[in-house]
Write a structure and sequence with these properties.
heterodimer, A: about 70 residues, B: about 160 residues, mainly alpha
Chain lengths: ~70, ~160
């Protein structure tokens, strides 16, 4: 029983580390991006266009709304 | 580095990154520094989701969410009341994720051939890099502080009159 608990505990710790590494990677890239576009000091706001779907042909003539989150 | 020390380092850095992200998001509502909706933006220009517009139009709902983001950012950066603020801000993080995660119609459109891959990819990046990222960091920290929540998880709690 103890061996089984220890195994579960170990797996949980590994999963926690894995989630931490994924979170750290996403955090660095996402927060880093946000910091770089603050007041457009290092990157222009239009760098977010990679996440904005290209406008549909009929909608392209209208004004494009700003990115939101 | 042993695993426990690695985990402690991960907790520290994820806490600071999430704190910074919340702080920037919160500040941006009152002082525009990012291309996201701010208090100075006209409501009509705000949006990819009608939900967001409706929240802004209430005049208090979006402001409250932004105030919570600001306070959570400060709490995470200065290591004060973190377990409490993680719970308080969880509905905001979850709602943001759900708003970003509404890619079902786009996915159906892509599978049906009416939506391009570029549109699907843009939605996916938005989902991962904003809503998904915050939820992952928040979830990681809530697991890290789980011992603080354990006393709350009782089925029948006794109330104690003052």
């Amino acid at each position: 029983m103890n061996a089984r608990n220890s195994c579960i505990h170990k797996a949980g710790r590994h999963l926690f580390t894995a989630l931490g590494i994924v979170s750290l990677f996403l955090g660095i890239t996402s927060t880093g991006w946000l910091v770089l576009i603050v007041d457009q000091w290092a990157l222009p706001w239009k760098s977010l266009a990679v996440m904005a779907p290209p406008p549909a042909p009929q909608a392209a003539r209208q004004q494009t709304p700003p990115q939101t989150r | 580095m042993d695993q426990q020390r690695l985990n402690q380092q991960l907790i520290l850095w994820v806490r600071l990154l999430l704190g910074l992200q919340y702080l920037l998001g919160g500040i941006n509502w009152w002082y525009k520094i990012l291309p996201f909706p701010s208090i100075t933006d006209p409501v009509a220009s705000a949006n990819k989701h009608a939900v967001l517009m409706a929240m802004i139009e209430t005049g208090w709902m979006f402001q409250t969410a932004k105030l919570i983001e600001l306070l959570t950012g400060l709490a995470l950066l200065f290591n004060r009341f973190i377990p409490l603020m993680l719970v308080v801000s969880f509905p905001v993080a979850l709602s943001t994720f759900i708003l970003d995660a509404m890619i079902g119609p786009t996915l159906v459109g892509f599978l049906g051939g009416t939506t391009s891959f570029a549109v699907l990819w843009a939605k996916f990046l938005d989902l991962v890099y904003f809503g998904g990222c915050v939820l992952a960091m928040q979830g990681f920290l809530m697991i890290a502080y789980f011992d603080r929540y354990r006393p709350m998880l009782v089925a029948r709690a006794e109330a104690k009159a003052p």
